[in-house]
Every structure is written in C-alpha cells, then in structure tokens.
Amino acid sequence: MEATAIQRFVRITPRKCNQILGLIRGLDAEQALVTLKFTPKNGARIIEKVLASAIANAKHTRQARTENLYVKEARVGAGPTMKRWLPRAQGRATPILKRTSHVSVTVATKE
Question: How confident is the model at residue 62, as a pLDDT?
Fold first, then answer.
C-alpha cells in the first residue's frame, strides 16, 4: 500500500533538490524525517514538509502505521524556469534563470 505527496513549483533547482532526496531514498519514514531535520540545507525543509504530507496521507487514507512506512520513491522534476535580466556594462544584459521544481515523495508499507 502506497501514499504519495507532490509539491509543485518549488523555488529550488532540481539539481540541489535531488542531492537532498538521495539522502532519504529507501530509508524508514521516521529515519528520513530525522535525517532531513538535521540536514543544513534550505531544500531539506521543503522536502521534510512533502515527506510529512505523504506520511499523513498514508495514515489517513490507508490507516498505515508510521513505523511500518519507508520511502519507496523520491524524485524531482524540472518545473518552469523564470527568466530575468541583469543589466551589465555598456548596455548589455545577462540572463538570470530562476529554476523551479516539482517534488514527489512516495511512501509504502514494509511487507
């Protein structure tokens, strides 16, 4: 039995987010929450909320116990990129790409 939580249009690059998701893939849900709590990255707060939501979805819809859950799948995809311009010398401009992500976390019960 599985439960999923998705956070879309998060203002963090997919590359940075994927590094943090690599820390929790395959871990028990409680251990993953502790790992994210003590990870000194801003993206860890976002992923912690998504994981907590997936756990709550499993408990509410599937009546699963927290100690029986593990992170089955944690993935990130690229969202739309906001394009901005930075003025430079002699009338030039440099593009600034503000990337967004779609974060998905799936928890499942241990069999």
Answer: 75
